[in-house]
Automatic annotation (TrEMBL):
Alphabetized GO MF terms: DNA binding
Annotated InterPro entries: RNaseH_sf (IPR036397), Tc1-like_DDE_dom (IPR038717), Transposase_5 (IPR052338), Transposase_Tc1-like (IPR002492)
Top-rank taxon, per record: Eukaryota
Pfam families: DDE_3 (PF13358), HTH_Tnp_Tc3_2 (PF01498)
Organism: Ascobolus immersus RN42
The protein's name: Tc1-like transposase DDE domain-containing protein
A GO BP annotation: DNA integration
Transposase Tc1-like domain span: 14-81
Residue ranges constituting the Tc1-like transposase DDE domain according to the UniProt record: 91-254
Amino acid sequence: PRSGRPLKFSERIRRWIMTSIRQYRFTYISEIQAACPETISRSTIRRYIKDAGLDSRISRKKPFLTAAQRKTRLYWCTKYTKGWTQGEWDRVVWTDECSFEVGKNAGRLRCWRKPDEAFNPDCLRPTFKSGRSSLMVWGCIIKGRKSPLVFLEKPEGATRNSVTAQRYIDEVLRPVLIPFWTEMCEERGWAEVVEDNCRIHTAKISKAFRAQWGLESMLWPAASPDLNPIENVWALLKLKVAQLNPRPRSVPELKIALTRIWDELDPSTFDPYIDSMAKRVMLCVANKGGHTKY
């Protein structure tokens, strides 16, 4: 005979609980308790989940990927795993825009998963494009260097901050990116430029303006912030803003804070992000175009 206290609930109930968890990783224990065919305590449910090796962990935010986007990411990463050295990654100018909201404190959603399931599709919290922003900034980095921070502010009298392709040319390309890229080309022999597929980057007038200067951006896979090291820089910047005491309470205060933090950041701080590019593309290929830990 089996030693020890007999199980209070059958193996069927244990399987039902685990099936419920795996069908929807974001379910609450109270919801499982309410739907359970038998009366069961929350502590028993929690113990069953723990015994299965699952814990309540913060759900990672990642852009939603379609099958076509995964295929494009796989193709792009496969291309750059062949023949590209770290020296070539060091000659890439990584650009991007980022929005900062005054006083924003994004909530974190928990899910039930094992330590190695962080990037399983059913454990991710998908993010989607949104036009909501308080202060839009643009910046770029290259190994060992950074550009000035550009604020794409809402025009006076406008109801929303609409950054057009013409504004992108007038406020970013002409005064900042073209001079920065030209300087890097002279310093390093040549430099590639990465821009995402935002409309202001792909507009005909933006392409025509870049062509006048001989600048042709690298083709970029959609929904791939994990492949752009500057996204890690934005995360660092947002962390430093969140750590301010007191925090900025208005857009002008936020602008002052961002300028000071950006100016104080040593460009060498970003080097590890760029040094990880070979690992990023290899991991994306291993995940068949899926998300990476970056």
